[in-house]
Amino acid sequence: MERSIIVTGASRGIGRSIALKAAEKGYQVCVNYKGAADKAEAVVREIEAAGGTAIAVQADMTKEADILRMFDTVDKELAPLGALVNNAGIVDKGSKVENMNLERLERMFATNITGPFLCAREAVKRLSTTHGGKGGVIVNISSVAAKTGAPNEYVDYAASKGAIDAMTLGLAKEVAAEGIRVNAVRPGIIYTDIHASGGEPDRVERFKSMVPMLRGGQPEEIADAVLWLLSERSSYVTGSLIDVSGGR
Ligand code: NAP
């Protein structure tokens, strides 16, 4: 049976890698993005060139109407939903908590917490056997920052990922008997553009000596863990937080 998957924030970085690998495994993919239509379309073309099916759907994770439209579009244009990867996320400039303003905190929590909650809600409505669905999988992309707290950099970001960990644990138990598995992957420091977006393009180089494996990770190494969680090979795994962080 064909199933579709929504990968939020799939225009680049970890989300892009998850989208490509999910397509290889036979999922029809919704490549969500916020602003980078050209990059999202490029991911779609890459999937199609390899014989897969994908659509790019713009939706800002801070806007409920956008999220509803995204799920609606998938309902209409792709196979029945089988999985959601809550991947879209942001950091901000390095700052101490004492200097964080309301606008920053609201943007951080809306993008990294509220958006994933709303997406999870919409996915559960479609996947739950209680609602006539066929079950499915939700994978949340958290961060090892949830355990380090990211002091002097972005405690707000770390706290948002702590919320995602708690959501993963609670939702997993809530829907375990409804055919839905919910897990999280917690990446360590990975080579993507997220660091430049926080004003520090060389962040991986600066941090890698603190990683036990003495290197940053690649997006594909995160995607491989996600793909395992999406697959039947993890059929008895739910409510798990899996660190993919080189030992950090
Ligand atoms: P990235 O390269 O900065 O990519 C972020 C993606 O999220 C882009 O596709 C972007 O879309 C999308 N996005 C941002 N805000 C959005 C919004 N409001 N609505 C919809 N999409 C939005 O990030 P990444 O490094 O791949 O990170 C992916 C996930 O891994 C995040 O949750 C991040 O917190 C987590 N993570 C990353 C690292 C790391 O070291 N890279 C470590 C731990 C955890 P546009 O391109 O359209 O703006």
Helix/strand layout:
Blueprint: E1 4-7, H1 13-24, E2 28-33, H2 37-49, E3 54-58, H3 64-77, E4 81-86, H4 102-127, E5 136-141, H5 145-148, H6 155-175, E6 180-187, H7 194-197, H8 203-207, H9 219-230, E7 241-244
Parallel strand pairs: 1-2, 1-4, 2-3, 4-5, 5-6, 6-7
Helix pairs in contact: 1-2, 1-9, 3-4, 4-6
The chain binds NADP nicotinamide-adenine-dinucleotide phosphate.
Describe it.
This protein is an alpha/beta fold and 248 residues long. The chain has one domain: NAD(P)-binding Rossmann-like Domain (Rossmann fold), CATH 3.40.50.720. The protein is 45% helix and 16% strand. The chain is built from nine helices and seven strands; from the N terminus they run E-H-E-H-E-H-E-H-E-H-H-E-H-H-H-E. It has a seven-stranded parallel sheet, sandwiched between helices. Helix 4 (102-127) links the parallel strand 4 (81-86) and strand 5. Helix 1 (13-24) packs across helix 9 and helix 3 packs parallel to helix 4 (102-127). The longest helix has 26 residues, at 102-127. The radius of gyration is 17 Å and the shape is globular. The model has no long low-confidence stretch (mean pLDDT 98). The structure holds NADP nicotinamide-adenine-dinucleotide phosphate. NADP nicotinamide-adenine-dinucleotide phosphate is lined by residues 8-15, 32-36, 39, 60-62, 87-90, 111, 141, 143, 187, 189-190, 192-194, 197. NADP nicotinamide-adenine-dinucleotide phosphate binds at residues 8-15, 32-36, 39, 60-62, 87-90, 111, 141, 143, 187, 189-190, 192-194, 197.
